[in-house]
Write a structure and sequence with these properties.
The protein contains no helices and eight strands. It is an all-beta fold. Strands 1, 2, 3, 4, 5, 6, 7 and 8 form an eight-stranded antiparallel sheet that branches. Strand 4 (56-68) and strand 5 (74-78) form a beta hairpin. The chain is globular and about 40 Å long.
Length: 118
């Protein structure tokens, strides 16, 4: 067994796409097709508007986020919520109070197992 603390102090700061307060702990890359990351987004932080290079899931594990996509509709989400972004979809994530999340990215990722209760 190996234990990996997911501390912001051990993460890489990302400032691409005018991002602010955005830190990533890289967890795994599988066959260069699947990337799994744990992120820290500080209070008033932003992952700037950018095109998803592949399908991706943003899974909020702590805190709240405000996400938007191609149509510029903003939606507030909180922990235990997942958001699926399709490859090529422009999207942005913001937070007022900070958040932690897991991001899974892969061209083979689909959302066909999710059940929608809207």
């Amino acid at each position: 067994m190996k234990i990996y603390p997911l501390k912001k102090s051990m993460a890489t700061q990302i400032d691409n796409h005018n991002s602010n307060g955005f830190f990533i702990n890289r967890l795994a890359t599988l066959d260069s097709k699947i990337s799994i990351n744990f992120i820290h987004l500080e209070a008033n932080g932003i992952i700037g508007n950018h095109k998803a290079p592949v399908n991706q899931i943003l899974l909020i594990v702590d805190g709240e986020a405000i996400v938007s996509s191609n149509n510029h509709t903003t939606v507030s989400i909180s922990k235990n919520t997942a958001v699926f972004f399709e490859a090529g979809e422009m999207h942005e994530t913001r937070t007022n109070d900070g958040l932690n999340a897991v991001i899974i990215e892969s061209p083979d990722l689909t959302d066909d197992l999710f059940q929608y209760n809207q």
